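BUG: 3D viewer hangs when loading the predicted structure for this chain

Environment: internal workstation, default settings.
Expected: structure renders.
Actual: progress bar stalls at 90%.

Input used:
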Amino acid sequence: MKDKPTPLIEFKNITVIKGGYNKIIDSVSVTIHEGENVAILGPNGAGKSSFIKTITRDYYPLPGRKNYVFKIWGKENWNIFSLRKRLGIVTNSLQHVHTSEISGMDVVLSGFFSSVGLWHQKVTAKMKKKAMEALEFMEIAHLGECKITEMSSGEARRFLIARALVHEPKALILDEPTNSLDLHALHILRKTLRKIAKAGTSIILVTQSLQDIIPEINRVILMKRGKFVCDGTKDAVLTSKNMSRLFDVPVVDMINKDGYYYVFRY
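Structure tokens produced before the viewer hung:
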């Protein structure tokens, strides 16, 4: 009899408190398996970014609660740098700190060192090769020598994704990836995420926007006020009733167009 595969994420009864009393994550339980593509959808202030910071060990939950489990790939204790080599992470805050006069290639190479740009790190030929492969996969190799500050928001976002991919992570975690992107950049990013998913990297997408949920994502978790309030397939979860409750608006109808879901009337 085959052993069950170890879940990528296994959290049970996870609560995170900030400021001494404010529950930013409230009794969350979830299991996500390697190979799954999952979206976590919720309004501003739902606790979505805090959930990511709990995965990456920037936040730690209250220990000792009943049925408490706090594991990634079956382990509770991780060296942060080892964990981040297995999880590619792209956040808006990461883009905000990449504002110095450094090239796109250096941004990608900095992923090997979890740094902002390169300082005195020794970059090997193997690292350069991996970085170039990531740029080519993202179709931005022609911009490698351009300064990150001279790029559009969409181009810079793709460099940060390339930075996250240099380690060939098992999963890519994206926090509100389409913020500040125009329609063209949104179209390119969607194509990029679909390409990554088809290549076999799990995607965990955290967003407040339905239009971010690509067809390859087959599971959606709704989050509100620090809690997971619904979890299931897209068809089961992305309904008018659920969207009305999640965003506190009277959604009348929704449509599914080529695997993308839209609020039609509200």
